[in-house]
What does this fold into?
Amino acid sequence: MLELRPNCECCDCDLPPDAVNARICSFECTFCAACAELKLGGRCPNCAGELLARPRRPADKLGNSPASTVRVHTPEGRVCGT
It folds into this structure.
């Protein structure tokens, strides 16, 4: 199940579970659309994977399957999956 991380790793802006501007790679590194497109060119800076729109979990499913509350902010990049 996707973690639905709560923020952009690059600029640290909030990305709630229903954010339409959240982008992820296959390792779930999470970025806002602005950073993904303008700063990163659609590629994850950690693994060079494609950044795609993050699926939104239906609100009625968040009670049993909540989004992550752990913020990851590493503008310098990191190894995906760690």
Observations:
- The first strand starts at residue 22 and ends at 24.
- Residues 1-63 form a domain with the Herpes Virus-1 fold (CATH 3.30.40).
- The chain has one domain: 1-63.
